[in-house]
Amino acid sequence: MKTTTTTIAMAMYFFFIANLVSICFLPDMFPDSQLFVVLEFADGGCDLERFELHSLSQAKAILHQICVTLAVAEAALQFEHRDLHWGNVLVKRMDSREPSSTHHLNGEEVCVATSGLDVSIIDFTLSRMQKDGQPLYCDLSADPTLFDGKGDYQFDIYRAMKKENRDNWKRHCPYTNVLWLHYLADKLLNKKYKANKKSQRAWQQKFQTFLKQVLDCRTVAQVLKDCTLFKDK
Prior knowledge:
The protein is of the alpha+beta class.
């Protein structure tokens, strides 16, 4: 039996999705002559959708880390992720159990309680940034099917982004990051936790307040400044 790059790619693909639900294309859609690029990354952990959390206080630590990361990227690069669903957020438990992480935003140090969790943002396919005065972006207007999805709040965010920037994906609209924060907070609020529901009530109220406050902010920096969720211990 002849081994081709497509055969190898298929084997790797099925190994990867053995315990996952994937919407990715099967590698066998390509001819045997197809070449593939394999990229190796550090283990960022488990995606947020499948990561088991004990409580909403841990969820707050995750959301806070995401907010600070986005705020720093906004300030430095006019960054917008534009596809920050919870499959693109990775979480892992830190061996060191560091109680907080330190970030630099607009010349100030920002300390964020981690709850022993390390958070990474991935998949910048649809993202936008500006480097040396040049905007780098994916023109989402070329794929109108992206805005036709139904069945999950994620698809509403795509349409809300399009409404916000009037389908002009070149210009910087930091509010798109705010929209994704609302999405993530909604997912975290409704996620199942190991802690009993009674002990969660105070944090549920804090998240519900955040959902009411966050969409009034125009940037993630304003979210950090104005939303009470990140002022509570």
